[in-house]
Specification:
495 residues; 13 helices; alpha/beta; globular; four-stranded antiparallel beta sheet; Arylsulfatase, C-terminal domain; 26% helix; Alkaline Phosphatase, subunit A; binds calcium ion
Length: 495
């Protein structure tokens, strides 16, 4: 039995305040994960391009919990996803590149919920199985998710492939992929809501991640490049491409907003809206020309890359009023928060913290700092960094020393770098102390990327990434030499 003895190291921090409330039935958990949706691209955060166009998310923000300082621990796909499922930092999981394989023996989200009697399901983009982006992920590498309609990684939204259950047959979602995936999630809700067992469902859309021009045509027509309002920190040389890419980016966002509406309607009809923890978030953001970083990029430490939307609704416990939590929530904090909120134990190997004690408590957790990191670049050129986001400041270091310090209260666009500026020595020192404290908690010392590559024994491709292929049947000779790599698999390739 996999989980025997697992909870012996439980941290005693369950703090839902349930003792004051009648014991609730175990809630369902529906975790809706978008891809590359930055926090700034939401109407409820004031994006002028979306005002009045995303009614479902706006309502969710008005009637539930808005974690207004949610950040991605390592703003790219695989590192985020591994951290989400394990509650650990990328420097602990070893999952700091895309296309690594998360070890099958990892104890993760679905297994923890199933231990308490939950059903589990995963629909959409996975990106935790390594190198074969179009490959079948066998059940033993699905980290405990039983109902399965998923694919490692594709953003071909108008011809989105997936695998279902134990079948190795490649299937194609009909029409625009995220619509079809959402329909499937709705079918699941209709089927399993009346069953009496609580369920954990992850619905992981690939959008609004590029390609942007493949968003539904009727929604593309609602934006024109000339009318797009760019952020004031978009550099001149990026304006044209940012306008062009934004049209499709926002069109995908409108599509996903309508999906959220359909999902919530189905939850209402199935009678599970009250007793379900519904989360809407994303794995990381999108630079879209801000700070001179071209559209389609992330992994860098600026807010457009790091900040993600994070809305949560759980009416049975929190009612249907607006609650803003400005204590930062980091990726490793999500799993313990969900477990705690559902009244389940939080195992000791989890490095994040439950944010439940801070919900609805004004000022609570305001000294929290979320540690962000880029252990090694792989999507384009980028420096290694460590940094913290607090509810007010961002402080980031590269290997050369302090990189930037911004005060978001007066400079939300991160245009005025206070690092090394006269008059800010004390603030910088305080932020440095917070960063050191967070790194210590995570057991990390900031070393050059080669240190971690050697530690985990990874063999990189010519672009400094973990090599992968899309189609197994590809005739390219290079494909044959690609090997699966991951924190467990690396050992056999070590000298
Ligand atoms: Ca991603």
């Amino acid at each position: 039995m996999l989980l025997i003895g697992l909870f012996s190291g439980c941290k005693n921090r369950s703090t839902t305040g349930r003792d004051q409330k009648p014991l609730l039935e175990k809630p369902n958990v529906i975790y809706v994960l978008a891809d590359q949706w930055r926090a700034q691209a939401t109407s409820y955060n004031g994006d002028p391009n979306l005002v009045g166009k995303t009614p479902n998310l706006d309502a969710m923000a008005r009637q539930g919990i808005n974690f207004s300082n949610a950040v991605s621990v390592c703003p790219v796909c695989t590192p985020y996803r591994a951290s989400l499922l394990t509650g650990q930092y990328p420097t602990t999981t070893g999952m700091f590149f895309n296309d690594l394989q998360l070890p099958a023996k990892s104890v993760t989200m679905a297994e923890l919920f199933k231990e308490s009697g939950y059903l589990s399901s995963y629909i959409g983009k996975w990106h935790l199985d390594g190198m074969g982006r179009g490959d079948f992920t066998p059940p033993e590498r699905r980290q405990g998710f039983d109902y399965w309609k998923a694919l490692e990684c594709s953003h071909e939204y108008q011809h989105l492939i997936y695998y279902e259950g134990d079948s190795k047959e490649q299937k194609v979602w009909e029409g625009y992929g995220p619509y079809a995936e959402t329909e499937d999630a709705i079918s699941y809700i209709r089927k399993y809501a009346p069953g009496g067992k609580p369920f954990l469902m992850v619905l992981a859309w690939g959008a609004p991640h590029f390609p942007h021009h493949t968003a539904p045509a009727n929604l593309m027509r609602r934006f024109t490049p000339e009318d797009i309002v760019l952020r004031d920190n978009v550099s001149k040389d990026m304006e044209e491409s940012a306008r062009k890419e934004s049209v499709g980016y926002y069109a995908h966002i409108l599509a996903l907003d309508s999906c959220m509406g359909l999902l919530q309607k189905a939850m209402d009809e199935a009678g599970i809206s009250q007793n379900t923890i519904l989360v809407f978030t994303s794995d990381h953001g999108e630079m879209m020309g801000s700070q001179g970083v071209r559209p389609r990029q992330k992994q860098v430490p600026w807010a457009e890359s790091v900040r993600v939307p994070f809305l949560l609704s759980y009416p049975a416990l929190y009612g249907k009023k607006s609650i803003i939590v400005d204590a930062p929530i980091n990726t490793p904090d999500i799993l313990p928060t969900l477990l705690d909120m559902a009244g389940l134990p939080v195992p000791g190997f989890i490095e994040g913290e439950s944010l439940v004690p801070f919900i609805g408590q004004e000022g609570a957790g305001e000294d929290r700092a979320a540690l962000i990191m880029n252990v090694s670049h792989f999507a384009g050129k980028g420096k290694e960094y460590r940094g913290i986001y607090t509810n007010r400041y961002a402080y980031v270091k590269s290997l050369e020393g302090p990189w930037f310090l911004y005060d978001h209260q007066i400079d939300p666009l991160q245009m005025d770098n206070l690092a090394g500026k006269p008059g800010y020595e004390n603030l910088q020192e305080k932020m440095e102390g917070l960063l050191q404290k967070e790194m210590e908690k995570a057991g990390d010392v900031f070393m050059p990327r080669q240190h971690y590559i050697d530690k985990w024994g990874y063999k990189l491709g010519e672009y400094g990434n973990i090599p992968y292929y899309f189609h197994k049947a590809s005739t390219s000779g290079a494909d044959q030499e690609i090997i699966f790599q991951g924190p467990e698999l690396n050992k056999k390739y070590r000298k």
